[in-house]
Records
---
Amino acid sequence: MRLLWLEARDFRNHRSVSIEMPQGLTAVVGANGLGKTNLLEAVYYLCALASPRVSVDLPLVRSGAESAFLRGEVEAAGSRILVEVEVRVSGQNRVQVNRSAVRRKRELRRQVRAVFSGPDDLGVVQGEPGERRRFMDEAVAALWPMKEGTASAYDRALRQRNRLLKDWGGAGEPPGLEGWDAEIVTHGSALTDARARAVATMRERANKEFSTLVGGSGPRLAVEYRPNVAGVPVEEAFVAQLAGRRADELVRRTTLVGPHRDDLSLTVEDLAARGFASHGEAWGAAVALRLALAGAVAEEVREPPILLLDDPFLGLDPARRGRLAEGLGGRGQVAIAVPDAAHVPPGATVWRIEEGRIGPA
């Protein structure tokens, strides 16, 4: 799977960009603030119809413009896929795949896969549980695009149930609570199963990637899903836990059981990475998780996804930086953004980004 070419207009700070993407490893080199990350973000958005950095599209449109435009052609499974996107300041975005309108993101995502790693991923290792839940849901969507609505369906049901609990001022249970119980059990069980399956596909890969990065007989990275609802079958365990916490929920007026309280356990040599890993180990774990996801996607679709790494050597010592650079070969089409030519891996195609220009060095 590879991006053949990309055109971007009024996307972030890029007024107009037109490039042909080479195969293999490409390093985009330039000073901070010139748009290296924005270029990688444009590639990811073209493939996933979402930004890996922000949850809304407004920041993607260059200041003063009404829309941002992305066009590109991806080669996947022996076919060429033309993707055209208009990101609007107001109103609904427009997306076409092979000149036909697309209404649901998964219509494109099931054909084109990309994985993005950037400095924000450090939050998956060192941040709050919500960051790790978001990573698991991103992994589910990347692996099985048809399941991407599982998390949002659960979130909608959870919000409605919480609103019912919060607004109820009478004695006993609020009318309709049993109906919302059924909704969160149905969607929550599906989400729990999907997260468990996603983590299972990445667990050993993440440890292998981490061990390779740290070198020698370095520390082990253990990745374990910690569901709030545990039991088989999940639906029965969910119902039982809801019943057990019913009185507490009525007092606290919020839902106390479900995958919105899940976590992902990340440990380095049996110590929690969040509190005990060094900065280099924490960043290595974050990169290892994304590389493991890319490997899992490659196995799922039988070809590697487009891999985009923003400043992947951040915080790594020279030895680990060298091992990571060496390991980027043979992963299909990979694009990395680095601020210094000294960080360019051997054999990479080098692109320079300067004010108003992007192109081969």
---
Amino acid sequence: MASFRTQIATQTLAAREAQAIRYAFDVPAALPDLPLTVTARLRHRSRTLRMQAAVCNAARSPAGRAFLAGARGAREVVLDPCTPQPITLIAEARVELGRGARPAAARPAWERLYEHGMALTATVSERLEEARTVLDAALAAAPAGDRRARAMILVQLATVAARQGRADDALALVAEARPLLPSPGPAVLDAIATDALGRVWRWQDAIAPARACADRAPANAGAWIALARALGSAGDDRAALAAATRGLELAPRDPDLLRSQAAALAALHRPEAPAALAAYDRFRSPDAAGELRMQCAAGSARCAREREQVHTHELHAP
């Protein structure tokens, strides 16, 4: 742990998030009769085989054997890291493809398309049109009278527009979704509006939705990050300091909040500014983070693949 320098990528999913991973293979020239049945299983092993092999080898050393004997004497357990690991089946899905295929899922088509499109919003900007296409299909398939379903899809379309720099389109989609939900609507609507405006440097316009988001989600550090950034970028250093302080009560080591605090204190010529800058320097991402990611990708095919969301695994027949 003491050797860790920076995070290369995160695979963590927050609440109500989705992740898409693609699996590609060469289709045989001679296909059997259609439709084809495809079964996908998500299986879990707690440790990689390489990691287990390293622990197993260490357990066979004199120090390892002594440790296992001590554990047996202290806890009345028999530890054997060389035992084959159990594999847990997490989920399984089956679908038919091709002519004559029958729907295999009981869930509505719009819902499956919605989750697929939501997962695709995390892809690189050059491929965001894929998410937009899927979400447009979800919107077309959603029941006309289901206000909540349509609002959910519009929110994801607004997210895509924001990430593509189409701020006005994102704001229009948020405005279209808002009356479909109970007033005043969830904080995510204001969060998306803030993000869309901030990406095109319209900081003064971003303050109102950022403040509304923080008011509705006061326990969300991300809301205070966005508000402090908007206020600081618009030149309101005193208000930016107040927002950063609220956020640091929730996430005292967050580098974005520490940066906003340090910048505001420096602009206000406060004596705490040097200490705030030192705190930011302590917890900010290292300057070499980008270089380390590139080195990781260049030296490992797995790293190059896994550091990008919506990546593809090439499958090969056994």
